[in-house]
């Protein structure tokens, strides 16, 4: 057989170390910005007013190697996994400064993309900055050669897994499950079929969701049932693209449905339903959004990207005529059930809001006020449909400041003004930003 000659691949020599560079600011991902003759570099872990050295990486980034002058806003990260774990990225910055930075990011993006220079900012909504996460996803890797399991979070900028036994931002309900899970999972025959594990804390129950490629064998089901009984948790299984199902209990009893709180109302959910990460702040967020919207009895209110009813049901309790729109059919069903349990009337509609609104309920309805809570990609098409109906007031809940700014620009061109805005510190110790905005038709 002829052999084809392949010259050895040449690896690029590392770029020379960049020394004694001033950090001029933070970008929207919380990375330090360094201005060099070759352009800006973004350095994770660096803070404004510091003098640093870094190893250039690629065209735009760099790895922090030394801090020669420290910022007065720098603090020692309390988490022992912080240097490698990709879950948090702002533990080295004082908490108040984290919130100031997040507000500055949104302000700058609103000015850049929407031309909004004066924003009436309220003080950020805030709550516990540690042990707040009521849901998390754990990465899993099974090494069949070593017969060992890695369970934890992805490393920063990598697919490798940082094994953890305690997480400082995870709720006190969920942290105690980490060690028992590490013991349980290697004993499952289906461990090699395991994609990842989700932990969720409801009002009075804990859930462990295993995502698998194939259904577990009966022996595995028995192990999981024992685990559920010992740890007093609900175990749920999701096989492939199927919906998550609850594993039957050993005593065949039917446990209570998992629930979360919204404006003093308990709402049922199932794994896969969207839940805010911070339970306490979700309560504040819903209350503030409804106060700004100020729904009056009989007003026609649209709640878009409605999920399982986080805003819809509190709105309906105010007497408004609520049409709640969600694109996932199972969540629409959950929303309808929650409304029935809460004793309120509303219209639950399943529709893709990023397509033209052809659903008869949406096509013909007059609208007084709108609340929307889209995913990170924002709501460009929905904004066009909303403004065509000319509601007087729009409350926009955003988890992505760049798409919020883009959508705000559309609202400005359609005759709306930004009346108030507020940062919701839903994700302390990270760069992620939640914003609540009030737009009013001029």
Automatic annotation (TrEMBL):
A GO molecular-function annotation: RNA binding
InterPro entries linked to this entry: 23S_rRNA_MeTrfase_RlmD (IPR001566), MeTrfase_TrmA_AS (IPR030390), MeTrfase_TrmA_CS (IPR030391), NA-bd_OB-fold (IPR012340), SAM-dependent_MTases_sf (IPR029063), U5_MeTrfase_fam (IPR010280)
EC id: 2.1.1.190
Organism name: Pseudidiomarina salinarum
Active site: 399 (nucleophile), 399
Chain spans, region Disordered: 1-30
Assigned protein family: Belongs to the class I-like SAM-binding methyltransferase superfamily. RNA M5U methyltransferase family. RlmD subfamily.
UniProt-annotated binding residues for S-adenosyl-L-methionine: 276, 305, 310, 326, 352, 373
Protein name, UniProt field: 23S rRNA (uracil(1939)-C(5))-methyltransferase RlmD
Stored HAMAP family: 23SrRNA_methyltr_RlmD (MF_01010)
Name of the coding gene: rlmD
């Amino acid at each position: 057989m002829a052999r084809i000659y392949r010259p050895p691949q040449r690896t690029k020599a590392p770029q020379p170390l960049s020394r004694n560079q001033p950090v001029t600011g933070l970008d929207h991902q919380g990375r330090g910005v360094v201005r060099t003759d070759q352009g800006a570099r973004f350095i994770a872990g660096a803070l404004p007013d510091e003098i640093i050295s870094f190893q250039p990486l690629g065209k735009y980034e760099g790895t922090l190697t030394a801090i020669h002058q420290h910022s007065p806003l720098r603090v020692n990260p309390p988490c022992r996994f912080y240097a490698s774990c990709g879950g948090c990225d702002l533990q080295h910055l004082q908490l108040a400064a984290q919130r100031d930075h997040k507000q500055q990011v949104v302000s700058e993006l609103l000015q850049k993309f929407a031309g909004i220079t004066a924003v009436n900012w309220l003080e950020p909504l805030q709550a516990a900055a540690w042990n707040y996460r009521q849901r998390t996803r754990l990465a899993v890797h099974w090494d069949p050669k070593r017969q060992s399991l890695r369970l934890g979070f992805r490393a920063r900028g990598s697919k490798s897994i940082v094994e953890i036994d305690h997480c400082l931002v995870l709720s006190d309900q969920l942290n105690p499950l980490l060690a028992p899970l590490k013991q349980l999972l290697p004993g499952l025959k289906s461990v090699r079929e395991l994609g990842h594990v989700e932990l969720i804390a409801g009002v009075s129950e804990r859930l462990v969701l295993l995502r698998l490629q194939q259904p577990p064998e009966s022996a595995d089901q028995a192990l999981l049932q024992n685990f559920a009984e010992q740890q007093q948790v609900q175990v749920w299984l999701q096989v492939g693209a199927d919906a998550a199902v609850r594993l039957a209990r050993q005593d065949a009893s039917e446990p209570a449905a998992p629930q979360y709180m919204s404006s003093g109302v308990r709402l049922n959910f199932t794994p896969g339903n969207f839940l805010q990460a911070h339970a306490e702040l979700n309560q504040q967020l819903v209350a503030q959004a409804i106060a700004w919207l100020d729904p009056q009895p009989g007003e026609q209110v649209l709640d878009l990207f409605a999920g399982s009813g986080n805003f819809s049901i509190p709105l309906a309790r105010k007497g408004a005529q609520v049409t709640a729109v969600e694109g996932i059919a199972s969540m629409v069903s959950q929303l309808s059930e929650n409304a029935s349990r809460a004793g309120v009337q509303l219209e639950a509609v399943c529709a893709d809001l990023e397509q033209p609104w052809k659903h008869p309920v949406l096509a013909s309805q007059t609208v007084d006020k709108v609340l929307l809570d889209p995913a990170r990609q924002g709501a460009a098409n929905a904004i066009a449909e909303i403004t065509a109906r000319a509601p007087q007031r729009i409350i926009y809940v955003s988890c992505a400041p760049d798409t919020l700014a883009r959508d705000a620009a559309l609202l400005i061109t359609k005759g709306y003004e930004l009346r108030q805005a507020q940062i919701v510190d839903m994700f302390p110790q990270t760069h992620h930003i939640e914003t609540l905005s009030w737009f009013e038709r001029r």
